[in-house]
Write a structure and sequence with these properties.
Elements: E1 11-20, E2 29-31, E3 38-49, E4 54-61, H1 70-81, E5 88-91, H2 98-106, E6 110-114, E7 125-126, E8 134-135, E9 141-150, E10 158-167, E11 175-179, H3 188-196, H4 198-213, H5 229-257
Parallel strand pairs: 1-5, 5-6
Antiparallel strand pairs: 1-3, 2-3, 3-4, 6-11, 7-9, 8-9, 9-10, 10-11
Protein name: Transposase IS4-like domain-containing protein
């Protein structure tokens, strides 16, 4: 199979969605586009199960980084639902930190996150025997190694993490996932499938359902119906010019009759 599916009942996906907010009132701002545009905005955090079912969301004004609050968020959701929320948490690259990996491990939870591109340097990885590249899916290759991560803020935090290396077909660059999950519980292929399953199991499902449930209905978000004064002025000028032409034509017609 192209995608493994057995893992889905054990996975939870967490993601932030930032939407611009058009308002005349004072409010916090956030970056709302890939070009760096900053304006008033709302950040909504969604928690989805491995099969794409949203179980919790909450909205903040401005920016709301996941890393400082993700563990507390999971605990609150478990308390509210009285059910465990996923054995494996999948988050995007903003939560890739040695401290957060360590905190998840101490809380007896597993976390898998992508390593940022600037940190992917072959000399940083350690590979043992039997860790050569193996076929993965669609011509991609996969292998597992180790990497030592140091927290950028707390220099005393250092973790020896598993590194799941994926090399896309026909390309030299690597995509790397890091985790402290037990290899006897989660194989490297299962971890890769869980992460790359974010699109079919979370993001694609969310996009298709977003419109129907109205989650993206934010005041002023998207298109706005406004009065285009420039166009109206041009129309008024054209109407006045047409009126003057009609008067001139009528005057010329009278003179021709004389």
């Amino acid at each position: 199979e192209r995608w493994e599916t057995d893992y889905r009942s054990y996975v939870v996906y967490i993601d932030n969605v930032i939407k611009p907010l058009w308002t005349d009132l004072f409010t916090k701002a956030a970056k709302v586009s890939c070009t760096g545009r900053v304006q008033p905005a709302l950040t909504t955090t969604f928690i989805n199960t491995g099969v794409g079912v949203p179980i919790h969301f909450e909205t903040y004004s401005g920016t709301a980084p996941l890393a400082p609050r993700v563990l507390d968020l999971l605990k609150r959701v478990e308390k509210e639902t009285d059910q465990p929320v996923g054995c494996l948490t999948v988050i995007d690259g903003e939560c890739c930190s040695a401290l957060l990996l360590q905190q998840f491990k101490l809380d007896e939870r597993d976390l898998v996150v992508p390593l940022s591109a600037k940190m992917i340097k072959p000399e940083r990885f350690r590979f043992g025997r039997g860790s050569a590249f193996k076929p993965y899916r669609d011509g991609d290759l996969i292998r597992e190694g180790r990497i030592t991560l140091r927290d950028s803020r707390d220099k005393t935090v250092e973790v020896d993490a598993r590194a799941i290396v994926i090399q896309p077909r026909g390309k030299e660059r690597w995509h790397v996932l890091v985790t402290l999950a037990d290899p006897e519980v989660w194989t490297c292929r299962e971890l890769a499938d869980a992460y790359y399953g974010r699109w079919p199991n979370q993001e694609g499902f969310f996009r298709s359902a977003n419109q129907s449930v109205g989650l993206k209905e934010v005041h002023g978000y998207g298109k706005r119906v406004v009065t285009n004064t420039t166009v109206l002025t041009q129309l008024e000028e054209l109407e006045a010019q047409m009126a003057r032409n009609h008067e001139r034509q009528a005057k010329n017609a009278k003179q021709l009759k004389k």
